[in-house]
Amino acid sequence: MYRKKVFRAAFLGTVLLVAGGGMRTWQSTLSAAQTTTTLPEVAVGPQYDTTHVYVAPDQFDRFVSSLLATFSGTATKQGVFTVTPTPSTTMSQLVLTPVGTISVFGFKTPLPYPFGTERTGYLVTDLDEAIKAARAAGADVTVTRFNDPIGRDAIIQWPGGVNMQLYWHTTAPSYKTLETIPENRVYVSADRADDFKQSFVTFSRGKVVSDNPQAPGIEIGRAGETHRRIRIASTFGKLTVFVTDGHLLYPYGRELTGYEVANLADTLTKAKAAGAEILVAAFTSEERTSSIVQFPGGYIAEIHSITSKPN
């Protein structure tokens, strides 16, 4: 049995109180109306939420080495498995860094649809209950539950076309608490932004920390303009929603996750030395300095440091 209440209390305490954590910048007055208690708590903790990265097998080891050289951490033993409900074979490895967890896949066979479209894997306490909760909150179940070598999985899609995987392990995993909580970065249209926000908050039992209709456009590559930016906190971790018209310059919208580091300049130096390419040079917006990086194998990520505390 997962310790749901302990994870939730510990995480929310980190979100609101710990100096140095990325969520300190998201403090605001939280309306009780933004908290839902109608669905069960199925989240475990942000260290169990993994970004899914698909790379070519010949780039697999180079990508993992680059991640570890940039962020430090450890990796599980590499293996070859079937992780889809239909026949397939993939190299697989879990990379555990202090700033986030990454599941790496290198398919040796053609990739069955819709795998590769899911951006994130969320560990849940009970897969059946999580699927029910997701459906009740407005999600579609695009891949019904199936078994993998160590548990069970399903893929869901939120309003706005955001795909995520839910997973459950037969033996409960135990990962170290993260030093900083990564943010799941989601781009949606103005037509579906409110639907997505309501559905995800309902499912995650999270809170809308901020909903800024005039956020600086430089954050999405459109300096001198503004856009709507929604930030959500839950036991799953952070999620940032960028509401746009889709008129985006590359690579905005391609980055799946934002990682908070203590010193951005030092981290970028490590990333470049490890073979990564800086796609967007460091810039400052509000309380953070950010850059966008492409790692060997093609994975694109935002990396940032906090530059000031909110008033």
Topology overview:
Blueprint (H helix, E strand, L loop, with lengths): L3 H14 L31 E6 L5 H12 L2 E2 L3 E3 L8 E8 L2 E8 L12 E4 L3 H10 L3 E9 L2 E8 L3 E8 L13 E7 L3 H12 L2 E10 L9 E9 L2 E8 L12 E4 L3 H10 L3 E9 L2 E7 L5 E7 L5
Parallel strand pairs: 1-5, 6-9, 10-13, 14-17
Antiparallel strand pairs: 1-6, 2-4, 3-4, 4-5, 7-8, 8-9, 10-14, 11-12, 12-13, 15-16, 16-17
Helix pairs in contact: 2-5
Could you please describe the fold and organization of this structure?
The protein has 311 residues and is an alpha+beta fold. The chain has five helices and 17 strands. The strands form two sheets. Strands 1, 2, 3, 4, 5, 6, 7, 8 and 9 form a nine-stranded mixed beta sheet that branches. Strands 11-12-13-10-14-17-16-15 form an eight-stranded mixed beta sheet, with helices on both faces. α2 packs antiparallel against α5 (264-273). The longest helix has 14 residues, at 4-17.
Give a brief rundown of this model.
The chain has 311 residues and is of the alpha+beta class.
